[in-house]
From TrEMBL, chains A, B:
This is Rubrerythrin. SUPFAM superfamilies: Ferritin-like. Coiled coil: none annotated. Pfam families: MiaE_2 (PF13794). Residues 8-186 form the Ferritin-like domain.
Amino acid sequence: MSDSPPGAVDLLGVLAYAELTAFLKLAEDAAALAPSLTDRAALSDLAVAEYGHFELLRDRLAALGQDPEAAMAPFVAPLDDWHAQTKPGDWLEALVKAYVGTGIAGDFYREAARQAEPETRKLVDEVLAEESRSEFAVERVRAALAENPKDAGRLALWARRLVGEALSQAHRLAATRPELALLLVAGGAVDGTSDAGQIGIGRLFSRLTEEHGKRMSALGLVPGP
Amino acid sequence: MSDSPPGAVDLLGVLAYAELTAFLKLAEDAAALAPSLTDRAALSDLAVAEYGHFELLRDRLAALGQDPEAAMAPFVAPLDDWHAQTKPGDWLEALVKAYVGTGIAGDFYREAARQAEPETRKLVDEVLAEESRSEFAVERVRAALAENPKDAGRLALWARRLVGEALSQAHRLAATRPELALLLVAGGAVDGTSDAGQIGIGRLFSRLTEEHGKRMSALGLVPGP
């Protein structure tokens, strides 16, 4: 990995574990919360796509001579914690999580990939191009809101919680994996004290907030403050 | 479906739901019981293969003008019950279940497919040809038994319970879906009273028992009485 920028293995590792665990959590939600077998199959389909991404990333790590298990290990706790804090209580929450969660993750990866080496960037782009599969969730949520508009309030709060918990875990990760954080803030210091780091983080957060707002609108939800 | 033998839609329906639910249960076991991320990925890989089979079967039902959800519906309760009765308590039990469960299911489908129309038979063969993926479970179980031979007793009992519960659910299904049962016993009556039905069922059970014995040996376990 001497020809890869610092943080590149971390990027592949966090992305790989995120995809593996997204697969398992989506399958769990499909089994527990889908109101019909058709819906169960639709969320399962999304889950299986995430597994496919995991395989690409794991194989890339192996091709770089890295142990995938070791590369993923530092990210198990923060990602598991995010899922534990955002366990959906019903089918609509599961759909919003599938769409918003995939979206937030995509935003982080896209930022990080900008700074990565070309091969990794290409792979991350490939993984992200597939994320439009979660669009089925948008249709279902919009249809449900058309029938029960009063669900909009609680789902908007739910989506805000998904982002809040994601930023909280990202903050925790940035402290322990400075090189990964460096990839995200594109060249600034990231200890939160230097001006360059602050500007980088500020930019990153406003990009994430902007993208999240678009997703909320797509779902028919008010983004909120 | 006027050109399909009675029971053909049932066969595709039970196989489709079995694969969908196997996918979800294997994913659940991978998330809950795998001792390492590598093991979690290996069982996930098996789960994803099951989902691929589900898709083939669902699409075949749709191509026959059948509603996949309706075709699967009669089989939800018996298959869910089987899984509820056979929830693995640890990783070794999960591996034995992945291998033995996939094997038992395969035996049933193989018998049923003999009598099905050529297109369905071809599809079932295609699905079954893939089942060798569960062989990874054999390697892990054998390695574990080489280290701790005393686990053999409880795992043999566990495997026997998997079969016992499967036969019990199959019996329940045969009573409610006589046309599917007919496919299984190859031309005999299946009400359990006529001689032809009894002979057919007797043959089926001895084939299942024989195949199960081979799988137990492969795992390094004593088949038991």
